[in-house]
Every structure is written in structure tokens, then in C-alpha cells.
Design brief:
Radius of gyration of chain A: 31 Å
Strand content of chain B: under 5%
Structural class of chain A: alpha+beta
Distance between the termini of chain B: 35 Å
Oligomer: heterodimer
Structural class of chain B: mainly alpha
Largest sheet of chain B: none
Number of strands of chain B: 0
Largest sheet of chain A: 6 strands, mixed
Helix content of chain B: 40-55%
Largest interface: A-B, 29 and 28 residues
Order of helices and strands of chain B: HHHH
Number of helices of chain B: 4
Helix content of chain A: 25-40%
């Protein structure tokens, strides 16, 4: 019996092939340049081929001009026919088609999630001549050899059609909303003669951007209210201890002044010392969004970067499938084997050893569930040479979190000393670790600092060393960062765990957001206000969340894709017709903002230190190089020749941040797949000048006669 | 393409049929757009809170001090400048 196994990516195919081949050494072949593997198994030859993610995509049905809208008729077509940049996928589809000839059994071994189900279903349906009807499904959560073998031996009898249908519906809805709304925005600007600019919005993008815009409006409209805190301290054995006043803030100035007046140079008496044990349970196992939050908190990795690294660890069989919302670790993953595996690494050996001494290993579990996959856990295999630094750090976070979930509760002794002077009460807090428990396993990702109390018994007295009232103001809510926005999307049920991080990246790419502490650009404010005015449904998180709920119902078999599409079309059609009737109005307003933003994007806030006029990013007509200078000094109207160098590669963004040394506006150069380079052009120029001066001196010294 | 520096319709509208601060579309029956309207409401309610905190503070002093606080929102600062230039508009509707 000849079998064809379809995987999602080539490196996943290599792993599956190694697991299925009787000798663990499948032969790698090429079909018209497309790699596939041939394996020998007890059941006969097995061919393992792979996709490159989605090989099929949605395109407009029939002959319609490229930027025409509205478009309601669509069809699934090979991706290379829809996107020029996907041209190489033509060979890929042809190769899978040829490999499927004469095959007796088809197996879908793509990732077990909504996207994986769709990728496999479409390849089997379109490239393998309708093999979807008879194909079987491999279900696995890790890419370890043993789990892949077991999944192959216990194949599911048919494909996960409901999951694939839900995936199809999600793509179709996103396409209908995205294509139509984005085209009307983009074209309205083009028709207003403001040049071409890609303006997009969508079912998830619109409400997500609105969260950031709403927050910015809150910050812009914030009126700080004054309040006062009492900052007091005592000295004991040459050490200062900060006291906490009984009220954390005082809202009236006179009250604050009275406290300071009555307590200055006063004598405090210790009236009570109270101690109690506080117990802290171990953390839950990682689901994707918690992992993304922790990676952002400890390493500053954006959610999309964390997901990409986690995916690499998964394909290397080091961790389980990362796109999960589960916070549970079922016993069948084999706790002991995993811990035994981890103990092979020096830094985990004693920790894993401690846990293995417990015969009843039981992890903690959180409230979230995922029917398809357990929480993220290390497989027990250890990273070999070649695993990147970023992936290694993420692996360490996951491995330590996994071990911490099996550890004991941590116990601290919290103490509170009450000191009184007249009617005023002050407190001193101390804490000491009694049982480190899980915190020992999760270091350095947990803070367990100890704080001692001064050696004072009840009834003892001590002199107030200093006291003052500090005027403070209420603060506006913080700006979102990639991690907190992702959490907000999750709370509001927008997008899926696999798509949220990408949506945030798109908002940056479209020039709607700037900086890590997300600030919407004027363009984002304008687009959102227009959408809110003319089609509030598009930026309404509740509506998008309702559609997400309907798609979950497709997955559960409670409704059909057709019903959901009909309902969504009922909403989007009138919105589109209304927008089209207002196209020139939209275009006029957007064009102004686009033009202003283009100018803003190249104009520095810091002025020229020599002539005081505005500095811009200028491109040399002669060399094509970019630099900081004055626009148009060649026309004779501007005499200042002040220039500074700029990075020549990547997309340049002027940041709001100023250089801590010279105060000049910082710039960021970002190239795909690289870490952004943030630098101060002025300090860089100074360094270059200093370097050249040293070199020049060195040349003079070496060339001067002895 | 419109050359840079051309006044936008918002600036042309400023004070005529748009927001008196930025010129953009007015919120219903107000003199300000939505964001400046919110800032104005907060500014007025903030004055009561500042009065309670300091027990008495003149409007002029309130506006001067608030403009210097780093936590004050950008739209609030714009409204402050508007009221400093037009102190008579503080009472009642500023149109």
C-alpha cells in the first residue's frame, strides 16, 4: 500500500519522515525542485511531502479590474495565480499532484489547528484530485519521534472537516471585509490626487486600532488631579527605613501639611508587630498569550517574535505545539520522561531531580482549555548546537515554568510593624522566605526579595528622621504595548491566537502606530474617526466578537459557513454602498492627513543647531544616499550646510525618544528579519569625527620623521 | 498632489463652522470637536477637584499650573490656551 503524507512546512515533513522511516533515514528526493521524502515502513512505501503554508488563496471571481470595488464574488484559487510573489508555489502544487498519482492512502499531517486543517484539506481536495473525502488525519501536539509514530499508528478516520470549514469561513470573511473596505479607503485617496498610499482596515484590524485610538483620546483629555503622599523615614543601626503613612494619599493640601507639622521631630512608639504567613501557589502552565506576555516582560520580545521562536522550537521537537489556549497538562504527556529529559541539562538537573523524587507528580492547572492541544511544555529533548540565542532563552522560560508547575506552594512570612505618634499611624513592612517552593524553579523569572524589619520590640521608641509631603498628580492610563494590546484583543475575543500578533505587526507596517508604547499616528486617528462616523459597525469590537462566536459554532458543528457568510454580507453590503456614495468626501479628508503625515514622517522635531530651521531626511540626487539636512539648499535660499549621516538600509522612523546625551531626536532603521537599529544621528556623527581624528593623528605620528 | 503648507480645510474651518481649537467637525451642539469637547468637560470638572485640594485656587492660577504639569493631556493643554486667550468663554458655552 502506497501512502502520501501531507505536512505543512518542509522542516516538519523532514521530522515526520524521520519518525516514520523504519531506519530513521528517509531518502530526500526532488520533484521538479520541490523536496519530498521516501520512507520504508512495515505497511509499504510512504511519501512525505509538504506545503509552504497556504497553497490556495481567495481571489476575485471573473475578470474584474485590479482595484475595482465592491467585490462580492470570490473563489479559492492556487495562490500563485492570486499573488505574484507566490510564483514558486506553482511548482509546489504540480509536484504534490504528481506525487499523489497511484497513491492508495492519503494522510493529512499538518498542524492540528484551524489553519492546519484548512491547508491540508485544500491540498488534498484540489491538488490530489478530491482525496479529501478518503484522507485520514494525524493528530499530534509535539514533533517528537515517539508521538509522531503513535499518531501515525492511530490515525483519525477522516479529516477535521468542521475545523477546515471554520477556517475557510474566517478567510472568506476577512477577505470580504478587508478587500472592500481597504480598497475604498485607498482609492478615495488616489482619486483625491494625493498619490498612492495603502490604507487598510478589516474585521479585526479596525476594532484593534480603535482600542489604541480610544486610549490616546483618554490620555489627551486627561486632567491630572493633585494629591499628596507622606514620605517619612527612621534611622536604626545606621540604616534608613521608609515608613508608610496610614493613608496612601491625602487629597487636601492642608491635611498633608498638618501631618508633616505634627510629626516632624516626633518620637514614634512601636505599638504592634504583626506577622502572618502568605502562601503563593505555583503559576499555571503556559498558554500562548501568557507565554507572549512573559517573553515581553522579561526579554522585550514582541508577541509575533515570540510566536516565531516558539514555532521553531516546536519544529525542532523541543516544545509542544505553541498555538494553544490551554493551561492544562494532562498526565498522558509523560511528566516523568520529560523531567528525566530535562535533567540532562546541567542547569536543570538538580531541579528536575528534586521533582522526580516525588512519586505523585501533579502540575497546577489554569482555567483555560483547548480541545485540540495541551498547554505548552518542553518535550524533554534538549537543544543542540545551532539553536538560536532567542530560542534558547524562550526554551529556558518554558522549561522552568513547566518545572515550577509541579513544585510546592511558596510560603513567606510577612511582618508589619505599627509605629504611632499622637493620632498618626505609620507602618513598616518586612518579608522573609520560609519555603521557596516553586520560586526556586522559576528563577530568574520571579522576584523573591527579602526585606528586614529593624530590631525594635513592642513599646520601643524611635525618632522620626525625616518627613515631608510630596505633591503628586493622578496619571493618565498607560499606552498599550504589543503585549497589553494582545491581551486586550484576547479579552474582547478579537482574532485567534495565531493571528493576533500579525494584526499588531500590520498596524505598525501601515504606519498607523509608532513606538513600543503605542501611539496612533494622525492617519490612524483620521481613519478610525471616519470609520466610526460612517460605519461604526466595522470598528465595533462587539460585532467582530459576535462573528468570532459564530465561527466557533461552525467548529462545533452548530451552524454552517453559509449561514455565517450570509449574515456578515447583510451587514457589510449597505456599509460599502454608503461609503462609496461618500467617496469624494472621504478622499478629501484622508488626502490631507496623508499629505501632512508624509511631511511629518521626514521632518525632525529638533531644529538645526547651527541655523535653527527645520531638519529633514533628505535624499541625495547624485548618490541616492539619505542624510539629515535641509530640504533644498541648492536653490540658493538656504545657506546652512549642516548635515548628519543616517543608516542607509531599512525603513527609517523618527522616534519620539530623544538622545540622553545630546537631546537630538532618535531614529530607528528597521529591516525585515533584523532587530531594529535605534541611534542618534548627531552622536553617531560625533563618534565618526572623533574616530577620524584619532586615525589622522595616528597617521601623522607614524609618518613624522624620527 | 497638494503642496506642503497649503491650509487644510480644518484650519480654514477653524472658528467658523468647525471646532474653535482645531477646526475639525463639531460634536453635536458644542463649540468643540469630540476630543476637545471631552478635554473641556474634564478641565471644568478638574477645576472643582483642584479647588477642593487647595481649598481655593483662582481660575487663572489653575490654568497656568495645569499647563505645566507633565501628566496633562495634549488636548487639555490646547483648551487651556484657548481659555487663557478667551477668559470670557469660561462661563457658559464658549461659542
Amino acid at each position: 500500500m502506497k501512502t502520501l503524507v501531507v505536512c505543512e512546512k518542509p522542516d516538519a515533513a523532514a521530522r515526520v519522515a524521520r519518525a516514520l522511516d523504519a531506519h530513521g533515514q528517509p531518502s530526500r528526493e526532488l520533484e521538479n525542485g520541490v523536496p519530498y521524502f521516501q520512507c520504508d515502513t512495515r505497511d509499504g512505501p510512504v511519501i512525505v511531502c509538504s506545503a509552504l503554508g497556504h497553497l490556495y488563496s481567495l481571489g476575485v471571481k471573473g475578470k474584474v479590474p485590479r482595484r475595482f470595488y465592491p467585490v462580492w464574488n470570490y473563489e479559492w484559487r492556487p495562490k500563485h495565480e492570486v499573488e505574484k510573489k507566490s510564483a514558486r508555489l506553482k511548482n509546489w502544487i504540480a509536484a504534490i499532484s504528481r506525487l499523489s498519482k497511484g497513491v492508495d492512502r492519503f494522510v493529512n499531517a499538518t498542524d492540528y489547528d484551524i489553519e492546519g486543517a484548512l491547508v491540508g484539506y485544500q491540498i488534498l481536495k484540489h491538488a490530489c484530485n478530491g482525496a479529501d473525502a478518503k484522507a485520514q488525519r494525524m493528530k499530534f501536539s509535539t514533533m517528537t519521534g515517539s508521538e509522531l509514530k503513535s499518531a501515525y499508528e492511530h490515525l483519525m478516520p477522516h479529516l477535521d472537516f468542521q475545523l477546515a470549514e471554520a477556517g475557510q469561513c474566517r478567510h472568506e470573511l476577512d477577505w470580504l471585509y478587508g478587500i472592500n473596505l481597504s480598497r475604498v479607503l485607498t482609492e478615495s485617496v488616489v482619486k483625491s490626487r494625493a498619490g498612492y498610499v495603502t490604507l487598510t482596515t478589516g474585521r479585526v484590524q479596525g476594532p484593534t486600532l480603535k482600542f489604541v485610538v480610544d486610549r490616546e483620546e483618554e490620555i489627551g483629555g486627561h486632567v491630572p488631579i493633585p494629591f499628596w503622599t507622606i514620605e517619612a523615614s527612621i534611622k536604626r543601626e545606621n540604616r534608613a527605613y521608609s515608613l508608610e503613612y496610614e493613608k496612601d494619599k491625602l487629597t487636601v493640601l492642608r491635611d498633608a501639611e498638618r501631618v508633616v507639622g505634627e510629626c516632624t521631630k516626633s518620637t514614634l512608639t512601636v505599638t504592634d508587630i504583626d506577622s502572618h504567613e502568605t502562601r503563593q501557589s505555583p503559576p499555571f502552565p503556559f498558554d500562548l498569550s501568557t507565554l507572549q506576555s512573559e517573553a515581553y516582560r522579561h526579554y522585550g520580545y514582541s508577541p509575533s517574535r515570540t510566536l516565531a521562536s516558539a514555532q521553531r522550537l516546536y519544529v525542532d521537537a523541543l516544545i509542544s505545539y505553541p498555538r494553544t489556549s490551554s493551561q492544562k497538562l494532562p498526565p498522558d504527556i509523560g511528566y516523568e520522561n520529560i523531567l528525566r529529559g530535562l535533567s540532562g541539562r546541567t542547569e536543570y538537573s538538580s531541579l528536575a531531580g528534586q521533582l522526580l523524587r516525588n512519586p505523585n507528580l501533579r502540575p497546577t492547572y489554569g482555567p483555560k482549555e483547548d480541545p485540540a492541544h495541551p498547554a505548552i511544555y518542553p518535550t524533554g529533548e534538549l537543544p543542540r548546537n545551532g539553536v538560536g540565542y532567542q530560542e534558547l532563552r524562550l526554551f529556558d522560560l518554558i522549561a522552568r515554568r513547566f518545572m515550577a508547575t509541579f513544585a510546592d506552594t511558596s510560603v513567606r512570612l510577612s511582618s508589619r510593624m505599627r509605629l504611632e505618634t499622637g493620632p498618626h499611624k505609620f507602618f513598616l513592612h518586612g518579608s522573609r522566605v520560609l519555603v521557596p517552593g516553586w520560586t526556586e524553579f522559576y528563577r530568574p523569572y520571579v522576584k523573591d526579595e527579602e526585606q528586614e524589619l529593624p530590631n525594635l520590640a513592642k513599646g520601643a521608641t524611635v525618632q522620626m528622621s525625616s518627613i515631608k509631603a510630596l505633591e503628586k498628580f493622578t496619571e493618565p492610563p498607560p499606552r498599550y504595548n504589543p503585549s497589553s494590546l494582545l491581551r486586550k484583543m484576547e479579552e474582547e475575543n478579537l482574532g485567534t491566537k495565531a493571528t493576533r500578533a500579525d494584526i499588531i505587526e500590520v498596524l505598525y507596517r501601515r504606519n498607523y502606530l509608532k513606538d513600543q508604547r503605542m501611539q496612533p499616528t494622525p492617519l490612524a486617528l483620521k481613519v478610525t474617526s471616519l470609520l466610526e462616523k460612517y460605519c461604526p459597525l466595522i470598528v465595533d469590537a462587539a460585532f467582530t466578537s459576535k462573528l468570532e462566536g459564530l465561527m466557533d459554532e461552525i467548529e462545533a458543528g452548530k451552524t454552517s459557513r453559509r449561514t455565517v457568510l450570509v449574515e456578515a454580507l447583510d451587514h457589510i453590503r449597505p456599509v460599502m454602498l454608503d461609503l462609496i456614495s461618500r467617496e469624494s468626501e472621504l478622499g478629501g479628508v484622508l488626502a490631507e492627513t496623508v499629505t501632512a503625515q508624509r511631511a511629518m514622517d521626514v521632518t525632525f522635531e529638533t531644529s538645526c543647531p547651527e541655523c535653527g530651521s527645520q531638519l529633514k531626511i533628505v535624499k541625495s540626487r547624485k548618490t541616492g544616499k539619505r542624510f539629515v539636512g535641509h530640504a533644498g539648499p541648492w536653490d540658493g535660499t538656504h545657506k546652512c550646510n549642516f548635515i548628519l549621516p543616517l543608516p542607509q538600509f531599512g525603513t527609517l522612523t523618527l522616534l519620539a525618544k530623544r538622545c540622553s546625551v545630546c537631546g537630538f531626536q532618535m531614529v530607528q532603521a528597521k529591516s525585515p528579519g533584523r532587530r531594529p537599529l535605534v541611534s542618534c544621528p548627531r552622536c553617531y556623527a560625533e563618534k565618526m569625527r572623533a574616530g577620524r581624528a584619532v586615525e589622522k593623528r595616528a597617521v601623522e605620528v607614524t609618518s613624522s620623521p624620527a | 498632489m497638494k503642496p506642503l503648507g497649503t491650509p487644510t480645510h480644518e484650519l480654514i474651518n477653524k472658528g467658523r463652522n468647525g471646532c474653535v481649537v482645531c477646526g475639525s467637525e463639531l460634536a453635536s451642539d458644542r463649540a468643540f470637536c469630540r476630543s476637545h469637547g471631552r478635554a473641556e468637560r474634564n478641565l471644568r470638572s478638574g477645576y472643582d477637584a483642584w479647588n477642593r485640594a487647595y481649598e481655593s485656587i483662582s481660575l487663572e492660577n489653575y490654568l497656568v499650573r495645569l499647563a505645566k504639569v507633565s501628566e496633562t493631556g495634549a488636548e487639555v493643554k490646547e483648551i487651556i490656551r484657548y481659555f487663557q486667550a478667551n477668559p470670557d468663554k469660561w462661563k457658559g458655552n464658549p461659542t
